[in-house]
């Protein structure tokens, strides 16, 4: 009896591995972290430019000496008394506007939304023009609290008109448009009635970082910090809400509570920023789009990106306004409006946005 010869079968080939020397793809989380670190570096560079560049150029070594050494020269006075407060205010206000815009776009699921959509700018403007024209208050410190109160009341009115606890993104947008139109009509009417009010209001409404003291920032700093912490805490539930109300409810998100707290965060952030510097537009529109293109739509990443990159945009825009028509200045609100207008045109021409 012969034993048959066994035929050996070759083993299954192993899956091909990476070629020697080939680069492994980096995890997306590493790229996002690198983007945050880059934002910190750019913010430091923008702050240095804000301290050094202006009607009088000051070398960086002299800027450092003015910040760390005893004051005694004209350059020291310029850096400490004029440019340092301006830079600090710009960084805080820019971060608040960028973070507020990110919360607004996530809440309303509207990529063209900015903080003015909830009536924050219109409410602050109406309160300021009332303080100037009716009560005769002309100092920044005097009408600061009027601006904050007006922003809060307008945002509350928009939320109530939009349905209160049952508010939807579409109803919030429509209510915000109606409140904005009514309040800005009031602002224009009262400004034309009181010419002195028109002069004061014209300077505040353009949006500027000039002549803003640190004391104003310290006054609203608790509100800005509270708004920022609240917005960051809402990042996860807002991310669930962005998937749709049904998905959010299935994930255990308390939808009505999240919407109310989001409106509170937007009011604190944008109301405080508007009270200090006047309405500065398009920062809350531009930065979330740029952040979303790099880190994706997840609010847990997008919100920190906006808080870092928005002050970079605002400080750089302020520097551009100082040097483009020397020795005069263009207010930062005008520069951001120009840049934002270009972006807005680009966005509305995109097919996905045009079909909203």
UniProtKB/TrEMBL annotation:
It is found in: Cell membrane. Belongs to the binding-protein-dependent transport system permease family. FecCD subfamily. Keywords: Cell membrane, Membrane, Transmembrane, Transmembrane helix, Transport. This is Iron chelate uptake ABC transporter family permease subunit. InterPro entries: ABC_BtuC-like, ABC_transptr_permease_BtuC. It holds the Pfam family FecCD. PANTHER family: FE(3+) DICITRATE TRANSPORT SYSTEM PERMEASE PROTEIN FECC-RELATED, FERRIC ENTEROBACTIN TRANSPORT SYSTEM PERMEASE PROTEIN. Residues 1-28 are annotated as: Disordered. The chain crosses the membrane at residues 33-55, 84-104, 116-137, 143-161, 173-195, 215-239, 260-282, 302-325, 332-349. It is a multi-pass membrane protein.
């Amino acid at each position: 009896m012969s034993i048959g010869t066994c035929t050996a079968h070759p083993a299954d080939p192993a899956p091909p591995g990476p070629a020697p020397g080939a680069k492994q793809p980096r995890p997306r989380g590493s790229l996002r972290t690198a983007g945050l670190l880059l934002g910190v570096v750019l913010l430091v560079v923008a702050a240095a430019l804000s301290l050094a560049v202006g009607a009088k150029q000051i070398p960086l070594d002299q800027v450092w000496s003015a910040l760390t050494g005893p004051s005694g020269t004209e350059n020291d006075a310029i850096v400490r008394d004029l440019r340092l407060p301006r830079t600090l205010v710009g960084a805080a206000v820019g971060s608040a506007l960028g973070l507020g815009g990110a919360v607004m776009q996530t809440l309303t699921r509207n990529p063209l939304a900015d903080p003015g959509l909830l009536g924050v700018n219109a409410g602050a403007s109406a309160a300021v023009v009332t303080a100037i024209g009716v009560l005769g208050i002309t100092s920044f410190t005097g009408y600061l609290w009027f601006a904050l109160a007006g922003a809060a009341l307008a945002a509350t009115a928009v939320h109530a008109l939009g349905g209160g606890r049952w508010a939807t993104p579409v109803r919030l947008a429509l209510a915000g448009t109606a409140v904005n139109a009514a309040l800005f009509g009031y602002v224009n009417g009262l400004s034309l009635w009181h010419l002195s009010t028109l002069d004061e209001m014209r300077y505040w409404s353009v949006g500027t970082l000039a002549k803003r003291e640190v004391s104003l920032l310290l006054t609203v700093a608790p509100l800005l910090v509270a708004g920022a912490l609240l917005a960051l805490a809402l990042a996860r539930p807002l991310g669930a809400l962005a998937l749709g109300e049904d998905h959010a409810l299935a994930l255990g998100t308390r939808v009505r509570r999240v919407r109310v707290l989001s409106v509170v965060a937007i009011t604190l952030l944008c109301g405080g920023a508007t009270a200090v510097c006047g309405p500065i537009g398009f920062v809350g529109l531009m930065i979330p789009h740029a952040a979303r293109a790099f880190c994706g739509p997840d609010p847990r990443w997008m919100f920190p990106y906006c808080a870092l990159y928005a002050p970079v945009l605002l400080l750089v825009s302020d520097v551009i306004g100082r040097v483009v028509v020397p020795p005069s200045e263009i207010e930062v609100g005008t520069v951001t409006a120009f840049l934002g207008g270009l972006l807005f045109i680009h966005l509305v021409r995109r097919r996905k946005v045009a079909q909203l």
